[in-house]
Amino acid sequence: MQKLLTIFVVALALFFVSCEKEIGAPKACFTFSTETPKPGDSVYVFNCSENYQIWTWYLPGGVTSSARHSYFVAPAQGTYPVALFVGNYGLKDTTTLVRSITVN
User: Fold this and answer.
1) How high is the pLDDT of residue 23?
2) What is the rounded distance in angstroms from the CA atom of residue 81 to the CA atom of residue 59?
3) Cβ atoms within 10 A of the Cβ of 82, count?
4) Chain-centre distance of CA 6, in angstroms?
5) Is residue 53 a contact partner of residue 29, using CB atoms and an 8 Å limit?
6) Helix (H) or strand (E) holding 70
7) Residue 95: half-sphere exposure toward Cβ, Cα within 13 Å
8) How far apart, in Å, do the first and last CA atoms of the chain sit?
9) pLDDT tens-digit readout, 19-48
10) Burial 35-65, CB ≥16 within 10 A → b, else e
11) Around 33, how many Cα atoms within 13 Å sit in the side-chain half-sphere?
């Protein structure tokens, strides 16, 4: 009986994996609400990615966010990287876009 249950569970898992819809490779894309923030300004980042199911933002100051669109407060003057990781649930296809923003 235990062997039959194991075979059933494996077959069911294979069924769901084989039914996964192919949506193409993810393409990371995002825009800033402003390209020239001053220290203390709120900067919104808008996710315009395609063919993705999961995402994570990596924002200045070591902050991460799992919100679809996010924001950060511009730190002191300087140039800072902002990254968006996107992928599918199985993590078969992933990509990360890194853009810099300069705070004046």
Assistant:
1) 66
2) 7
3) 19
4) 35
5) no
6) strand 70-73
7) 12
8) 69
9) 455 668 999 999 999 999 999 999 999 999
10) eebeeeeebebebebebbeebebebbeeeeb
11) 13
